[in-house]
Amino acid sequence: MNDLIIKNTKNKGRGVFANRDFKIGETIEICPVIVISSSGVDQLGKSILDEYFFLWESKEDAAIALGYGSLYNHSLNNNAIFEKDLINKTLIIKSINDIKKGDEIFINYFGDEKEKEDWLWFEDKK
Q: How far apart are CA 88 and CA 112, in angstroms?
């Protein structure tokens, strides 16, 4: 975890920042996840974890990413992506641009563009 640090951001709370340079295509972090079944997802929405989960295998279940996984901030101009590994129950964060030490690492919460409809409630704050 020495490659990443958590810092406060100007208007998004905490964020994940590079503590070294990352090259395009490099794996930044592999985060184990805790999968929440459909019966527990409703409870997430009523808790502080409401803003920290990922939709998982279907629209009915979710996952909380461990490590720094649930702390990456969103941007449509993201410099990283996330990939779900359903078999190994991990979320893989990869760079899609070169990222310099000190830069915040952003993912696009929409993930796959086809999932964008699921996120219509979400406003991209700059």
A: 19
